[in-house]
Design brief:
By secondary structure, the chain is mostly beta strands. It has 4 helices and 15 strands. Strands 1, 2, 3, 4, 7, 8, 9 and 10 form an 8-stranded antiparallel beta sheet that branches. It has a 3-stranded mixed beta sheet with strand order 12-15-14. The two termini are about 20 Å apart.
């Protein structure tokens, strides 16, 4: 990875701890994925050598463990899996693997999620002032409604995902309307599999701003 400046170790929730100064930048491998979790791997030396020749433990080395996070400058935040420790003669290293903190969306479930079916449990029927005198909705839920979150599919999906919101979205997608009946799955799976397949769109995740970015298939637009 070229022009990489800083890798910051963080506590869960993007709380900075320190800059990792033992990273071997030649080992960094960053993989971006559409409709999946981005991944990064790199190696951290336990000890670094100062200019005067003294060997000291590198910053944050002992705190690199599962569920901590790393911020890769200008790229994003990653949740660390349990690192692998390697011991050679006079040298110990940790191989760090991190997955996009969009993994948080795997831990939030949609339960009985129903939209645009006109049944009593369907969310358009529960939106404020949205039922006419005949008992039907005045408006249905569209893919993304920036003026009314109660009628915005993406906002309704992300409701339980604290801190996450909608970012860039192709205009073509905004007014599309889809029906889902009694969906029970985690948010990440719904977005990247069920909704992506139905709407023929691609999701990526901006973990710095915690936003979902959507593009029409076959590939993201510049």
């Amino acid at each position: 990875m070229k022009n990489l400046k800083n890798i910051i170790l963080c506590k869960p929730g993007k709380v900075p701890v320190c800059q990792l100064n033992g990273v071997d930048y030649n080992t960094i491998n960053y993989t971006t994925k559409f409709n999946d979790l981005d991944e990064i791997t790199f190696t951290v030396d336990k000890y670094i050598t100062l200019r005067d020749g003294e060997s000291v433990k590198s910053n944050g080395y002992d705190n690199i463990h599962a569920f901590m996070e790393v911020y890769i400058e200008d790229i994003g935040y990653f949740q660390i899996r349990e690192p692998e420790i390697s011991n050679e003669i006079n040298k110990e290293t940790k191989t760090v693997t991190g997955v996009s903190i969009a993994t948080e969306l795997l831990q939030k479930d949609l339960v009985g999620f129903t939209v645009n079916t006109s049944t009593t449990a369907s969310l358009e029927m529960l939106a404020d002032n949205n039922i006419n005198s005949l008992g039907y909705p005045n408006e249905y839920i569209t893919f993304y409604n920036p003026t009314n979150k109660q009628l915005s599919l993406l906002d309704l999906v992300l409701e339980k995902a604290v801190g996450w919101s909608v970012g860039t979205i192709d205009d073509f997608l905004k007014n599309q309307r889809y029906s889902f009946d009694n969906i029970n799955e985690n948010i990440f799976s719904f977005l990247t599999k069920t909704l992506s397949s139905t709407a023929r769109c691609i999701f990526t995740f901006d973990t710095i701003n915690k936003t979902c970015l959507l593009y029409t298939s076959p590939s993201p637009r510049d």
